[in-house]
Amino acid sequence: MKTGLTLIQTYGNPESAHIDAGMLRSNGIACEVVESAGSELFPAPYGGIGTTSIYAEADKAEEALRILKDSHD
Fold first, then answer.
1. Residue 51 half-sphere exposure toward CB, CA atoms < 13 A
2. Distance of alpha carbon 24 from alpha carbon 2, whole angstroms
3. How high is the mean pLDDT of the chain?
């Protein structure tokens, strides 16, 4: 993972994380999706054994959180 990134959101399945990462990227926020070792084997609705996380540029973390919140409201 690149330096200068901060945790934005954790997901129970990789698909949701990749969709949200695409939304952030389309809004000009560089981000990275990181999947734990068990996320493909043991998907869970709200995290669990396997989780997937989005990390975004630290200086744009607040904007990234706002974008994700607005999109899920």
1. 10
2. 17
3. 85
